[in-house]
Amino acid sequence: MKADIHPNYQFVVVRDISADFEFLTQTSADPKLFKGTTTIDGVEYPVMQVDISSASHPFYTGQQKIMDTEGRVEAYYRKYGFKTPADNG
Q1: What is the rounded average pLDDT for all residues in the chain?
Q2: Is 17 inside any structural domain?
Q3: Do the domain assignments include residue 19?
């Protein structure tokens, strides 16, 4: 194998900021993505923060968040002064 062409593969702690959950894994991600460090069992690891992981994603948790899809189009039409499709009869 050629030297100096492979990315650095290292341990990193992935922290899900929406579920307050973290786990240790390996990655070849750019170190610029890391936000500080944390210590686990006396070993210091860089931290990568994510918004969604298996601890917070509705597919894995089984708890889907209900979003207001009803009324978004109507709100858009009202905001910009258009007649809503319901107004057209």
Answers
A1: 81
A2: yes
A3: yes
37 with 44: CB under 8 angstroms?
yes
Residues 35 and 13: their CA atoms lie apart, in Å, by 10
CB 25 within 8 A of CB 18: no
Query: Which residue matches tokens 């007649």?
Result: 83
Cα pseudo-dihedral 36, 41, 42, 46, rounded to 10: -20
- State the total domains in the chain: 1
More confident of the two residues 19 and 59: 19
Domain span at residue 52?
10-79
| pLDDT at 42 (0 to 100) | 94
Q: Residue-wise over 11-26: b if at least 16 C-beta within 10 A, else e?
A: ebbbbbeebeebeeee
pLDDT of residue 50: 86
Express each pLDDT in 42-59 by its tens digit.
999 999 988 888 777 766
What's the token pair of residue 59? 């597919």
- In a domain, residue 88? The reply is no
